[in-house]
Amino acid sequence: MQLNRVRVIGVVPMGLIGVGLCSVSALAIDWVEPRNNDASDVPLIAQEVVGEGELNSINGSLTGQPLLGLDFRDMYAFNVVNPTNFSAQVVASVPVPVLYLFDADGRGVLASQINPAFESNLPGFGRRATDGTESAVLNPGRYFIAIAGFGNIPVDSAGNPIFAFGTRTEVSGPDGTGGANPIAGWLNDGDTGSYRIEFTGSGGIPSVGSLPTLALGALVASRRRRS
Asked: Which among 26, 88, 165, 212 is most buried, taking Cβ atoms within 10 Å?
């Protein structure tokens, strides 16, 4: 995980100092995985994409080196703001990547090996699975996005796979034998290298210092509705 910038167009919140450079503006967040702060690979210690703007991209790398364990997959926490408009697409990557989405409880939602609509045959998905499972991003809130090399499989606590691909071009729902359970770890290792994931309908996670401001805004909006 080598990249260490987060580009925020505007003022960088003080809470981000020491975490990594994050480019934040009212319009977009381009998150870059800090060089010495690996994104890890399970929800409990996933890296939070901190910021109050629209999430434009996540940029990082899989090094295969032992930082917080062997670095063969990365997981990030972010917010889905508009489920109807949600998408995540890998646009530059390790040789053969796979993209995974988990809900706030760590349960599988979507997975992709190849998005046939994308010219470079990289993984990506909109809000719904295409494999008949009907799995979908239905609600706004916290989710986890993970990227790994091909053959690197998320599993539950019993070692059962959460996803089972019928074809490489489907968007899979959690139809593996462990699909009803939250992710507990991974099987196998995969390719290494840098990646970029682009998003729509998504946002960062507000820093703790920004929460009072958000609460005040919600209160003002509530009072306006009453008047």
From this structure: 88
- 11, 43, 174, 120: CA torsion to nearest 10: 40
Q: String of b and e for 94-122 (b: at least 16 CB within 10 Å)?
A: bebbbbbbbbeebbbbbbbbbbeeeeeeb
172 close to 133: Cβ distance less than 8 angstroms = yes
Residue keyed to tokens 């999430």: 55
Distance CA 105, CA 76 (A): 14
* 99 token code pair: 């993209």
Q: Which tokens is 17 given?
A: 């100092």
Q: In 3D, which of 18, 86, 94 has the Cα closest to residue 50?
A: 18
Instruction: Spell out a b/e string for 187-215, using b for 16 or more CB atoms within 10 Å of the CB, else e.
Output: eebbbbbbbbbbbebbbbbbbeeeeeeee
pLDDT in tens, 73-85: 999 999 999 999 9
| Residue pointed to by tokens 């609509």 | 117
Q: How do residues 130-145 score in pLDDT, each as one tens digit? A: 999 999 999 999 999 9
Q: What is the C-alpha separation between 118 and 214, in angstroms, rounded?
A: 37
Among the listed residues 128, 141, 123, the one whose alpha carbon sits nearest the alpha carbon of residue 84: 128
Give one word for 20, left, alpha or beta, with left for phi > 0 and alpha for psi -120 to 50. left
pTM score: 0.80
